[in-house]
């Protein structure tokens, strides 16, 4: 069983898709690194990239081609100023050259050297094959798969020995919800405390706190940007940003000049009952409007579902507990990350494999469980909350119109956040002994549903709203 850290589930990257943008970006980086390790990098005279299956069918709308280019160039999705991406692309297309890893300039025809192939490779729906042509005219090929949430593997799915040993050295190696509860009961600890023990096997608590703060700051900045940006989203659907206008109606007149002051001002604002879910929706929409604009978001567990967790965490900070501090944020993210990892181990977080239940459904379950712990729920109730949230997302299709992570994706984040809050509240009123469906069973059911789902409803733009809506009417 692979080691999955909280920081594997919550990653900083560029939108609009973790599997179609961040994954191919990381695959390109990894391929270049392997060529360097093998001593072939300096001999490269040309490169071609072949995108298969879902990466081909929705790749243009998900900016897969752009992500591959950025990865080949050695740009870092965590730090690259996103407003420079169009400038970089213009230079590549005008000069027909590409600078690999910021070191070697090669001829490159953007329209010909990235090839979209609709056929699916047998191993996974998101296949990407790289070809290098060397100075002696020999060719080297390698194939990677973007399996959701920015995770990238080769077909063998062989994890490094170091990774396996790390899992074994975890104080509490966890594959299932039942195993997680066992550690909680035996040690009389909360879920966040158990997860923290495992994370300490990988890094110091100081490093854990630093990285969690960076993740939260990125979430907050993303919400801030989305709430203060108006206009039309790119891509041709002419989707108008809504978070800006919603925020203007809700925010009141408190002064602020940065995301931290903004948050503190909202927390001091008297929020009327009817405004609570409007705020939650505003937070969720803001993140995914930034994501749809190739902005920087936190993959949680995917980019398409990046708005759910920050929106629910903001709900806790703004509505439930005005005195909450970093320790509360830390617990929330630790619990959310662990729940997400259990879903990944038992099912999938890839929409190309499982439909949108694997994205919005999983993110809603993560947020519900995390909120439940902060609201005082015991470990059993936390897993009940996660189960309730997923149970009511089972079978959700992934059918983005025009292959863009906009319709219905952006609104689904609002729905997922609202369901997460509701699931957490329901779990607090539930005696776990009365719960009929354990978390592990709903994960198993989700995976069976994913395998039974018609492939056209799995991020291919060949079914559902993607074909039911005429693009000329948008």
Largest sheet: 5 strands, mixed
Q: If strands are numbered along the chain, what order do they take across the biggest sheet? A: 5-2-6-7-8
Count the DSSP helices: 21
> How many runs of DSSP E, i.e. beta strands?
9
Globally, the shape reads globular
Tell me the quaternary state: single chain
Question: Can you give me a brief rundown of this structure?
Answer:
This protein is α+β, with helices and mostly antiparallel strands. Helix content is 52%, strand content 11%.
Task: Please tell me about this protein's structure.
The protein is α+β, with helices and mostly antiparallel strands and 474 residues long. The chain has helices spanning 6-9, 18-38, 54-57, 64-73, 85-95, 110-113, 161-169, 177-187, 191-199, 205-227, 243-250, 259-268, 273-292, 308-320, 326-346, 351-354, 360-374, 379-391, 409-428, 439-452, 465-468; strands at 11-14, 44-53, 97-100, 104-107, 114-117, 126-134, 139-148, 151-153, 296-299. The strands form three sheets. It has a five-stranded mixed beta sheet. A two-stranded antiparallel ribbon has the order 1-9. Strands 3-4 form a two-stranded antiparallel sheet. Helix 10 (205-227) crosses helix 12 (259-268), helix 10 (205-227) packs across helix 13 (273-292) and helix 17 (360-374) runs antiparallel to helix 18. The protein is globular and about 70 Å long. Residues 158-164 have low confidence and may be disordered.
């Amino acid at each position: 069983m692979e080691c999955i850290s909280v920081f594997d589930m919550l990653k900083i990257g560029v939108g609009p898709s973790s599997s179609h943008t961040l994954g191919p970006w990381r695959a390109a980086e990894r391929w270049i690194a392997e060529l360097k390790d093998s001593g072939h990098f300096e001999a490269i005279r040309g490169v071609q990239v072949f995108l298969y299956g879902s990466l081909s069918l929705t790749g243009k709308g998900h900016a897969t081609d752009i992500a591959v280019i950025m990865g080949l160039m050695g740009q870092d999705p965590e730090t690259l100023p996103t407003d420079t991406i169009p400038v970089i692309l213009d230079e590549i297309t005008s000069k027909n050259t590409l600078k690999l890893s910021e070191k070697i300039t090669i001829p490159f025809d953007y329209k010909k050297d990235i090839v979209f192939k609709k056929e699916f490779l047998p191993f996974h729906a998101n296949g990407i094959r790289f070809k290098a042509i060397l100075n002696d005219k020999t060719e080297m090929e390698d194939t990677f798969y973007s399996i959701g949430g920015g995770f990238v593997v080769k077909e063998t799915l062989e994890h490094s020995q170091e990774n396996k040993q790390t899992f074994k050295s975890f104080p509490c190696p966890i594959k299932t919800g039942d195993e997680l509860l066992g550690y909680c009961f035996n040690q009389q600890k909360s879920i966040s405390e158990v997860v923290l023990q495992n994370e300490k096997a990988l890094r110091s608590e100081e490093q854990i706190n630093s990285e969690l703060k960076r993740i939260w700051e990125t979430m907050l900045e993303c919400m801030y940007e989305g709430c203060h940006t108006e206009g039309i989203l790119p891509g041709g659907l002419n989707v108008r940003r809504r978070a800006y206008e919603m925020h203007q109606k809700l925010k009141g007149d408190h002064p602020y000049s940065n995301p931290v002051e903004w948050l503190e001002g909202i927390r001091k604002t008297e929020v009327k009952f009817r405004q609570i879910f409007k705020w939650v929706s505003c937070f969720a929409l803001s993140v995914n409007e930034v994501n749809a604009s190739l902005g920087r978001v936190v993959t949680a567990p995917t980019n398409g579902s990046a708005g759910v967790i920050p929106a629910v965490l903001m709900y806790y900070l703004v509505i439930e507990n005005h005195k909450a501090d970093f320790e509360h944020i830390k617990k929330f993210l630790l619990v959310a990350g662990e729940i997400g990892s259990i879903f990944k181990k038992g099912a999938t977080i890839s929409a190309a494999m499982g439909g949108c239940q694997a994205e919005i459904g999983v993110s809603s379950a993560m947020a519900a469980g995390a909120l439940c712990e902060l609201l005082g729920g015991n470990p059993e109730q936390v897993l009940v909350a996660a189960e309730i949230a997923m149970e009511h997302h089972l079978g959700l299709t992934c059918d983005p119109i025009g292959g863009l992570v906009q319709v219905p994706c952006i609104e689904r984040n609002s729905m997922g956040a609202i369901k997460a809050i509701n699931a957490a509240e329901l779990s607090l009123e539930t005696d776990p002994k009365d719960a009929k469906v354990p978390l592990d069973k709903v994960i198993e059911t989700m995976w069976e549903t994913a395998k039974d789902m018609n492939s056209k409803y799995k991020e291919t733009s060949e079914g559902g709203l993607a074909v039911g809506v005429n693009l000329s009417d948008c």
